[in-house]
Specification:
Rossmann fold; 2 domains; ADH-like_N; 7-stranded mixed beta sheet; globular; alpha/beta; 6-stranded parallel beta sheet; Quinone Oxidoreductase, Chain A, domain 1
């Protein structure tokens, strides 16, 4: 099979190549999938540059979400049947012609969905759905990196969950339009003036739920912006900078809480939650209650371009590789 490989940590695509590898076989409790489409995510960039905890070995095959058809079932697995269209959270190894995944992280694709649409569900849409389990109807939400794939998914799903005021932040003016098109009431540029802009839009109260994929780079700002009794959820470290210790004083003073989120952690310790969320978002896509319009690139040879677009901050929305 052909697969995308990172040979070693690198700041760019200089150590990325497409290679011929032996097709993996499913072990006990696993399913092998003939991949028809695979999602590209910022976590690929984090693995490529060697951030701790992402690439488990070198060379490394990235790719955390796939859609395709069941190729083979491992021991102890009685379905879905071979040939069934499925989507799955792989964690890694998805940017390849064949992927092997735990059977309890696989969901059947409903009729009417393309493989390209379904490939955006296991990582991107499922992450958004699980993050929004912390949302109560009517609450205000602020999402950093609002123009990215997860950021846009959060806008759509937050509306379905009954969110009130929905604010997004972006890294530059070129990304404002994409965030606003995704459904945010306002897209604000991170930097000087952000605190004042958010306070103005919330009547000085602050935001009930802040979702932040930037590690702790913006945690001090988050603590200024969170409403009394509000929650901050850190769900990534896109900046790649070392995580800073949290100051407890503002938490006590603001009656606020800070939590963490990792879909990989859920997949390892609570795969039923990932599978349930994946099945739910696939159903919403099929029903038309949720939409996804990924930028599709053809072939593994172009996957590195999509990853670099995310690394450079040029990519808006979701990228999917069609195999």
């Amino acid at each position: 099979m052909r697969a995308l490989l990172f040979d070693r940590p690198a700041p760019d695509a200089g150590a990325t190549r497409v290679a011929d590898l032996e097709s993996p076989l499913p072990g006990h409790g696993e399913v092998a999938i003939d991949v028809r489409a695979a999602g590209v995510n910022f976590i690929d960039v984090m693995a490529r540059r060697g951030d701790p905890g992402y690439a488990t070995e070198w060379p490394f095959v990235p790719g955390l979400e796939v859609a395709g058809t069941v190729r083979a079932l491992g021991a102890g697995v009685d379905g879905p049947a071979i040939g069934t269209p499925v989507a799955a959270f792989t964690g890694s190894g998805g940017l390849a012609e064949v992927a092997v995944v735990r059977a309890d992280l696989v969901a059947v694709i409903p009729e009417g969905l393309s493989f390209e649409q379904a490939a955006a569900a296991p990582g991107t849409l499922t992450t958004a759905a699980l993050l929004l389990n912390r949302l109560q109807p009517g609450e205000s939400v602020l999402v950093h990196s609002a123009a990215g794939g997860v950021g846009q998914a959060l806008a759509s799903l937050a509306r379905l969950r009954g969110a009130g005021l929905l604010l997004g932040t972006v890294g530059g003016a070129s990304r404002v339009q994409a965030a606003e098109k995704a459904g945010y009431d306002a897209a604000l540029i991170r930097g000087d003036g952000l605190v004042e802009a958010v306070r103005e839009r919330t009547g000085g109260r602050g935001v009930d739920l802040i979702l932040d994929p930037q590690g702790t780079e913006w945690i001090d700002t988050d603590l200024e912006l969170v409403a009394p009794g509000g929650r901050i959820v850190l769900f990534g470290n896109a900046s790649g900078t070392p995580l800073a210790p949290l100051a407890l004083g503002p938490l006590f003073g603001g009656n606020a809480s800070v939590g963490g989120f990792s879909i990989r952690g859920y997949s390892a310790k609570a795969p039923h939650l990932v599978a349930a969320a994946l099945t739910d978002v696939l159903g919403k896509l099929a029903q038309g209650a949720l939409t996804v319009d990924p930028t599709v690139v053809d072939g593994l040879d172009r996957a590195a371009e999509a990853q670099q677009a995310l690394a450079d901050g040029r990519g808006n929305g979701k990228y999917v590789v069609r195999l």
